[in-house]
Design goal:
75 residues, mainly alpha, Non-ribosomal Peptide Synthetase Peptidyl Carrier Protein, Chain A, 4 helices
Length: 75
């Protein structure tokens, strides 16, 4: 499973809806502030690391999540 597939599977599971590369808080009604916290927890568990508060605040789309995780993997 690729990193992107893992992200999409995790996000889809938490939000209980289909998601794709273009999904974000702006275009997904189920991605509210409470779901955002649940999503961050699920992503931390899936990838086995923690996000900083600034990262969490910026991870409002699939592409932003991908960028953040790629950066953490490289560090």
């Amino acid at each position: 499973m690729t990193m992107t597939d893992k992200i999409l599977t995790t996000v889809s599971g938490v939000l209980q809806t289909e998601v794709n590369q273009h999904t974000s808080q702006k275009n997904c009604a189920k991605w509210d502030s409470l779901m955002h916290i649940n999503l961050m927890i699920a992503l931390e568990e899936a990838f086995d690391f923690s996000f900083e508060p600034e990262e969490i605040a910026n991870m409002t789309s699939i592409s932003a999540i991908e960028q953040t995780i790629k950066k953490k993997i490289k560090d």
